[in-house]
Amino acid sequence: MTSNEAIEAAEERSKSTAKRNLPQFDDLPIPVDTANLREGPSLNDACLALLPLVGVWRGEGEITYPTIDGPRKFAQQLTIAHDGRPFLIHEARSWLLDDEGNVVRPAARESGFWRPQPDDSLELLLTHSSGILELFYGTTRGQASWQMATDAVVRTSTAKEVTGAQRLYGLVANGDLGYVEERAMVGQPLQPHASAILRRVVG
Predict the structure, then answer these.
(1) In terms of C-beta distances under 8 Å and separation of at least 24 residues, what long-range contacts does 28-35 make, across chains too?
(2) How many Cα atoms occupy the beta-carbon half-sphere of 27 within 13 Å?
(3) How far apart are CA 92 and CA 58, in angstroms?
(4) Strands 88-97 and 177-185, how do they pair?
(5) Rounded distance, CA 1 to CA 142, Å?
(6) What pTM value is reported for the model?
(7) Residue 37 has pLDDT above 60, yes or no
(8) Structurally, what CATH architecture does the domain formed by 3-24+31-202 represent?
(9) pLDDT at 15
(10) Which region holds residue 110: left if phi is over 0, alpha if psi is between -120 and 50, else beta?
(11) Are the beta carbons of 63 and 95 closer than 8 angstroms?
């Protein structure tokens, strides 16, 4: 997808998403988080390379794990918001699906921050509900993709072993957001772990 095609797709999508945003508390004495660039504080200039990520995204994908047979289907909501400061807020909630697309149970949750740096590098800090904390470093690739790899992984004594991960996010056909993740865990080398295509629902 070219940059112009991505912009045209985003404009078409915005007809149904532009008037939606995160639920707001109107009595906070500080700027609220917003996932809609049309509302709330202005996006900090430091985050301009990440602008296409801001929004709420939902979709489906597949996850593989060394200790399970075959890929499992999952769905996910990814929220990437900001409050006007030079970072983005990241929150992802997932749930497992059966072969017919029915919800089986809640699955992984992660939260953290995207921190763009003056040299155009990226830091992504993620905390997982499974007891894993990850620090990614990466770069923006072109205008619509972002690649990163872990520099450090910390886990609690009860978490499964994870020693490294890589992620690639990018805008794909129709302005959707796709991502793939590789992960080294439970004594296995880095290998495909998760992939999904998410459709913008807010922003």
Answers:
(1) 30/83, 31/83, 31/84, 32/83, 33/81, 33/82, 33/83, 33/89, 34/81, 34/82, 34/83, 35/79, 35/80, 35/81, 35/202, 35/203
(2) 0
(3) 10
(4) unpaired
(5) 12
(6) 0.88
(7) yes
(8) Beta Barrel (2.40)
(9) 74
(10) beta
(11) no
Q: Would you mind telling me the total number of residues written for the chain in this entry?
A: 203
Enumerate the domain spans of the chain. 3-24+31-202
What three-state secondary structure class fits 47? Answer: helix
DSSP structural state of residue 12: H
The Cα 40–Cα 81 span in angstroms is 11
3-state secondary structure of 54: coil
Residue with tokens 């500080």: 30
Q: How confident is the model at residue 55 (pLDDT cuts 50, 70, 90)?
A: very high
DSSP H or E segment with residue 74: strand 72-81
Is a pLDDT exceeding 80 seen at residue 13? no
